[in-house]
Amino acid sequence: MSAVDAHGASAVKPFLTLIIPVHHGEKWIAATLDSIAAESAPDLEVIVVDGTPDNADGSPNQASADIVRSYSDRLALDLVRRPDLDNLRTKVNFAIERARAPHVSLICQDDLWLPGRLAAARRWIAAAPEAALHVGPVQIVDQDARPLGKLRCPLPTDVPSPKELLVERLLVQNFICAPAAVFRRDHWLAAGGLEVDLWYTGDWDLYFKLADLGAVYYHPEVTAAFRIHGGALTITGSRDPADFEAQMRVVLDRHLPRLAPELAEPVTRAADASIKINVALAAASDGSLAALGRAALHLLSLGPRGLHRYLRDSRLFDRAFPRLRARLTGAL
Questions:
Q1: Homologous superfamily of 3-227 in CATH?
Q2: Separation between Cα atoms, residue 54 and residue 34, nearest integer Å
Q3: Mind listing the pLDDT tens digit for each residue in 207-237?
């Protein structure tokens, strides 16, 4: 049985629904909601799905929900407590079904909107309302919200990305960060939403499916921040190397057939190296110095052309340098 709290939900038809899945979010959620409230408007709907488990004695754990409720006078909030939804994918899929707006966006409990985010989303949708997906770069920040770098997409800006180009580059690495994306709700539903078993690569898998349903636009403005810290799912989950690699292999194997035949060999080599390097870097970040050597060998095995493709599409430096900075400063 779900317990639902609707606080301040606006009667105005929303143009955008923002979805926030929460699990023991009391450390971060206030900062996240502050960043959204600074951008808010009457036609922004915010759905918070709190899946925090009940206390050991069976009573509801209300710590995160109480913080969210305190924003009911600043946001058009729909707070839903669903401790039975025990992972991010089920929370997000549930909220998409519930959303009232034709377009949706996601943000995790520890990420942030930046000034101009809502205005940018409004412009993107107005310019191309039929697009399946609008995306942008993100600012990567540490646990104290200090900037560490930017993650960009290797796509043309402010025009529909050619589908063949998107598939070719996205197969090498998922360079789209969910907090910077805006989706059409009907396309999300038609694509089947996030696959529950893909805890690490569900969004990556979904982007290929959305590209079948409509155009994908990349906009160069930075309007969201992705926070890296020791408790993040991308950090804790990657500590199981076999499962981490399997998550990426599922998506690669599933979507390789989309490639034109003449691209199959070079893209497959770059994508396979990308997976091996991601696994090696995860091991290195967990203290294995030998993994750095393995990553270097995988890079060298690509040769000049393959290395160029890999570095362009993987955004390796965009992803690795912020984590290295955080590690060196003790923020990770």
A1: Spore Coat Polysaccharide Biosynthesis Protein SpsA; Chain A (3.90.550.10)
A2: 26
A3: 999 999 999 999 999 999 999 987 655 544 4
